[in-house]
Every structure is written in C-alpha cells, then in structure tokens.
Design brief:
- The structure is a single chain.
- By secondary structure, this protein is of the alpha+beta class.
- 17% of the residues lie in helices and 21% in strands.
- The protein has a five-stranded mixed sheet with strand order 2-1-5-3-4.
- Strand 1 and strand 2 form a beta hairpin.
- It is globular and about 30 Å long.
- The N and C termini lie far apart (27 Å).
- The structure holds FE2/S2 (inorganic) cluster.
- The site of FE2/S2 (inorganic) cluster has 15 residues, from loops.
C-alpha cells in the first residue's frame, strides 16, 4: 500500500492507503475525497481530476504525456506541477505522495 495525502484547497488533509496499480484519481474516488470529480472516469478526457503534485514528488511522478498536456490546457490555474491524477499510477515508490487540489475543484 502507498500512503497518499490529498490536501483540499481549504487545507483539509486526507491521508489514505492506496493499492499499487490504481491511479491517484481512483484512490481519491474510492475514499470519497472531495475535489477530484473524475467526470470521465480516468480516460484523460475531462481535467476534473487536476492536482498539484508536491514539489518533493515531482521527479517520482514523472512528466505528463503529450495527451495529458493537451487535456491540462482545459484545466483551471494550471501550474508547472499540475497533473491529471488519473494519469499517475500508484506504486510502492509513491508511498508518502502529497497532492493538492485546485481552488476550482473545492
Ligand atoms: S478523470 Fe478525466 S481526465 Fe482524469
């Protein structure tokens, strides 16, 4: 299991265990974490699963694919550490990961 901390725009933290193989989005949805709607169900086609990856974790989560970059263009307040959480696959390597949700998804 990988422990993932989701921090809402309001500052409320949710620390949950997510099974490797799921996406960071699925981990949020399964645990009823507000701020990640995932309207398209993880198909990289909605940008409602937008998160900011904590700076310390950017290297481990990697760079967005070109398709993800295109979809991020539809996101609100996109930053250099923006990712679509359905495109980040959870692994033991990501144990301790911290992501924040944008204001618009609060
Ligand atoms: S869930 Fe739709 S882009 Fe991630």
């Amino acid at each position: 299991m990988a422990k993932i901390t989701y921090i809402e725009f309001s500052g409320t933290e949710h620390v949950v265990d997510v099974k490797p193989g799921l996406s960071v989005m699925e981990g949020a949805v399964k645990n009823n974490i507000p701020g990640i709607d995932a309207d398209c169900g993880g198909a990289c086609a909605c940008a409602t699963c937008h998160v900011y990856v904590d700076e310390a974790w950017r290297e481990k989560t990697g760079e967005p694919s070109p398709m993800e970059e295109d979809m991020l263009d539809f996101g609100y307040d996109v930053r250099s550490n923006s990712r679509l959480s359905c495109q980040i696959k959870v692994s033991d390597e990501l144990d301790g990961l911290i992501v924040r949700t944008p204001e618009k998804q609060a």
